[in-house]
Amino acid sequence: MKNEIFQIDDYIFQKKISSKEISKIVSDLANHLRSDYADEEVVYLVVLKGAFIFASDLIRAAGLKCKIHLISASSYGSELKSSGKVELNIQNIDIENENIIIIEDIVDSGRTLKAIIDALQGLRPKSIVSVCLLSKPAERKVNVDVQYIGKEIPSEFVIGYGLDYKEQGRHLQHLYSIKNK
Ligand code: IMP
Ligand code: MG
Known about the structure:
Elements: E1 5-8, E2 11-17, H1 19-36, E3 42-48, H2 52-62, E4 66-74, E5 87-89, E6 99-107, H3 111-121, E7 127-135, E8 148-152, E9 158-159, E10 175-178
Parallel strand pairs: 3-4, 3-6, 6-7, 7-8
Antiparallel strand pairs: 1-2, 2-10, 4-5, 9-10
Helix pairs in contact: 1-2
The protein binds inosinic acid and magnesium ion.
């Protein structure tokens, strides 16, 4: 079957969430954002690299008046398991009194998102919420509130739609999960 599997090194990834389902998830999230921020301007903080494709669809679907900043965070390196150490790169951004919407691809241990939120608090925004395409609730190691979650998934490694394994697989239209580990 076409596009059902994708291989990276010795790992076989199997199609898990179709692009059609992803579109539905993104449009539901966009509708929530649109109704919650109806007449307000927002500032999106897109967490690179994983969230860039998700963000580009979500931001256009929501249609809110906005500013967009790109920030970067990495905790995974090249491994399938989070390293526990989060490296952040948040350039000088002025978000004082702004409504911040962090756009992230996936919450796993929660450390990345928590590190980002902690770093932003000092910049005195009006509000901060997070929107994540995917969440692995069973993997959570730190307490972090995620106001908008697209879909909860089991503890398995996924690629596609911006998410990578060793920088590969970001271009895939569907989401794939690892089959053999
Ligand atoms: P956390 O800090 O453990 O919550 O990990 C979150 C970050 O790890 C995300 O921003 C992703 O970049 C990456 N990550 C977590 N799980 C996956 C996965 O299944 N596939 C690809 N990247 C992942
Ligand atoms: Mg990421």
